Amino acid sequence: MLAEFGVTLPEDTAIRVWDSTAEVRYLVIPERPDGTDGWSEDQLTALVTRDSMIGTGQALRPEAAA
Amino acid sequence: MNRLHDMGGRYGDGPVPDTDDSVVFHSDWEAHAMAVTVLSATVGAWNIDASRHARESLAPKDYTRFSYYERWMAGLADLLVARGVVTADELAQAAPAEPADLQPSALRAQDIPASQNKRAPYSREIDRAPQFKSGDAVRSVSYSPNVAVPGGHSRLPRYAMGRVGTIEVCHGAHVLPDSNAHFLGEAPEPLYTVAFRAEELWGSAAKRPHDTIMLDLWESYLSPVA
């Protein structure tokens, strides 16, 4: 499934999938990429993608935002 | 949920299409379909669980060939007739035989934002304690989770029926869609997030057996595992 979205994760990454079956809603907080220490909110926002907010991808790498 | 929409874990549907979600409506009629459906609910003849059930109950041959908003329109048409708001004849003629009683309560354009911004939480206070606590092992019901209406609306996907999981957290009591969808009352009961190991759900097809799948499940879907 993740591979269909072009995502590969390290073998030791635990994946927890939420199937939204009730009226409770969940937000995915993207993992902060390495190399972004001291970045402003605007800079970090530029790394956030749709897929990273629904758990089917990771935030962009810092070099991708350059 | 043993109807066609219950496609979680099903083979044969092909890859998930990676579509451009910046396009909200693919044509004008889709926006109208959404508006008519959402605003028709203000008539008060049904609730959100009933409207979901109406779409899920479309004939399989229709469900398969309809687009997303075609399902919305078909479900709405069925609900309007089933709840006696209009007759099938009136719907076919696109005009009422005589003015309907609900006209005085028609929603005016200026009242729409307020009516749509109203919050309608599904959490409820009940006077009994939850049966399960975090860490308890539970088994989900094995076939037809809706005990009041066989084959009725339910939120337990087929892939998670009859499986053993662990209570992650209790969310307090919530309206039971299985009851509410059929106008049998809200029947609120404790709602839990239940964690299932991938291997418990997918067997040897689980590529990473220790990954977990979380589902929000109502207490009546669950029984204790010693």
Order of helices and strands of chain B: HHHHHHEEEHEHEE
Share of helix of chain A, binned: 10-25%
Count of helices of chain B? 8
Specify Rg of chain B, calculated over alpha carbons: 20 Å
Alpha-carbon distance between the two ends of chain B:
27 Å
Beta-strand content bin of chain B: 15-25%
* Overall body shape of chain A: globular
Describe the global form of chain B. Answer: globular
Secondary-structure element sequence of chain A? EHH
Account of the protein in words:
With 66 residues, chain A is mostly loops. Chain A is 14% helix and 6% strand. Chain A has helices at 41-45, 50-53; one strand spanning 16-19. Chain A starts with 15 loop residues before the first strand and ends in a 13-residue tail after the last helix. Chain B has 226 residues and is α+β, with helices and mostly antiparallel strands. Chain B has helices spanning 28-40, 48-56, 60-65, 68-82, 88-93, 112-117, 177-180, 198-202, and strands at 123-124, 137-140, 164-174, 189-197, 212-218, 222-224. In chain B, strands 1, 2, 3, 4, 5 and 6 form a 6-stranded antiparallel beta sheet that branches. In chain B, α1 runs parallel beside α4 and α2 packs across α4 (68-82). The longest helix of chain B is centred in the first third of the chain and has 15 residues, at 68-82. The radius of gyration of chain B is 20 Å and the shape is globular. The two termini of chain B are 27 Å apart. The relative contact order of chain B is 0.14. β1 of chain A pairs parallel with β5 of chain B, so a sheet runs across the interface.
